[in-house]
Amino acid sequence: MSFEIPETLTSSPEREALALGLEQVFFSPLEEDERQRQASDAMIPPLRAFALLDASQSPDIPIYLEGFSDPVRCLFDGAANDDMAEVAPWLVELTRYSDAWDWFVEEGYGQNWGILVHSRLELPRLKTHLKKFLKIEDEDGERYFFKYYRPEHFNRYAPGFDDTQRAAFWRGIEAVYAESKGDMAMLLRHGLYGGGKHRRQKFDVSEAGKSLMTGKADLNDNPSALTRG
After folding, report:
1. Taking every annotated instance into account, which residue ranges of this chain make up the domain DUF4123 (predicted)?
2. What is the distance between the alpha carbons of residues 126 and 52, in angstroms, rounded to a whole number?
3. Which end of the chain is more exposed for a tag (fewer CB within 10 A), N or C?
4. Quick check: 4 pLDDT over 70?
5. What is the pLDDT of residues 58-88, one digit of tens each?
6. Of 9, 25, 52, which is closest to residue 206 (Cα–Cα)?
């Protein structure tokens, strides 16, 4: 089964710039990683791109993801998948020109659908890793379902992880990108410093896209020009 996404008859320059900047900010690190891997003798797995999306935010998410050719997995298995796939978290592997990426940018970005991930893990292993954090326990021993994959939640809670939580979550993950609530032009990149402390960077993807449209900047040559903070 496949789907064709209707093309927008007209696209505003602002939306076009945002889409172009988002694509460049998110995929340029993968291309740089590939160049470095080709120039090195080290046997390092390639850096991969993923989206982790919350199907409870839109009924279209599982329908479209299962219709695309892009590799995809639901984080729920067994009976939970049978009963709750329509509201479950879904993990899809992305490439710069994939159908899933184009669809996410057009329909889901800015809607609190989910987070973007860079990892060297392959899809099945990353799914297993991410499943570990779906439930958390409070100080009284009560367990709760934790939708950390919603951008507003990740932006709020990830910087506050303690040392143990950071070590567990970031094992196998190099970066998480999340849209900023109330300002879809601002993309937040979360990761770790060399010492293991949380690092957050801000990317103005709208300005990045405008610069690329006018030929004034190339993220591969000068990525710091597109960041804030």
Report:
1. 50-167
2. 10
3. N
4. no
5. 999 999 999 999 999 999 999 888 889 999 9
6. 25
Q: Measure the CA–CA gap between 101 and 117, rounded to whole angstroms.
A: 13
d(CA 46, CA 52): 19
Is the pLDDT reported for residue 92 higher than 70? yes
* Cα-based distances in Å from 143 to 14, 138, 139: 43, 7, 10
Strands lying side by side in the sheet with 173-180: 72-74, 89-94, 48-54, 114-119, 173-180, 183-192, 198-204, 227-228
- Please report the pLDDT score of residue 140 as a whole number: 72
Q: Is the pLDDT of residue 41 over 80?
A: no
Vertex 104 angle, CA 101 and 105, to 5°: 85
CA distance 134 to 169: 11
Q: How far apart are CA 46 and CA 174, in angstroms?
A: 12
- Tokens representing 226 are 């597109």
**Strand ranges in 48-164 using DSSP code E only, listed in sequence order:** 48-54, 72-74, 89-94, 114-119, 135-137, 143-145
Per-residue model confidence (pLDDT) at position 216 = 55
Residue 194: partners with Cβ closer than 8 Å, 6 or more residues away:
none
Residue 105: CB atoms within 10 A of its CB come to 17
- Number of residues in the chain: 229
Measured CA angle at 67 (ends 62, 70), to 5 deg: 95
Amino acid at 156: R
